Amino acid sequence: MTTSQMAPATGWRAMLAPYLEREALAALFLGMSSGFPYAMIGATLTTRLAQDGISKKSVTAFSLAFLVYSFKFLWAPIVDRARLPGLNRYGQRVSWLWLSSLLVAASVIWLGSLDPKAGLMNVAFAAIALGFAGATFDIVIDAYRIETLQPRQLGVGSGMSQYGWRIGSVCAAALALVVASRAGWGLAYGLCALFVLPAALTGWWLGEPARHHEPAPVRNFKQAVGAVVGPLSEFFRRRGAFLVLAFVLLHKIGDTLANLTVRLLLDDLHFTNDEIATYDVGFGFIAYLVGIFIGGILYERLGLKRSVTISLFLMAVSNLSFALLAAIGHSSSLLAFTIGFENVSSGIGGVTIVAYLSALCNLSFTATQFALLSAAASIVGKFLTGTTAGRLIEAMGYVNFYLLTTLVALPGLALYVWMSRTGLIDESLSHDSEATDRSP
Question: Residue 116 in contact with residue 45, Cβ under 8 Å?
Answer without folding.
Answer: no
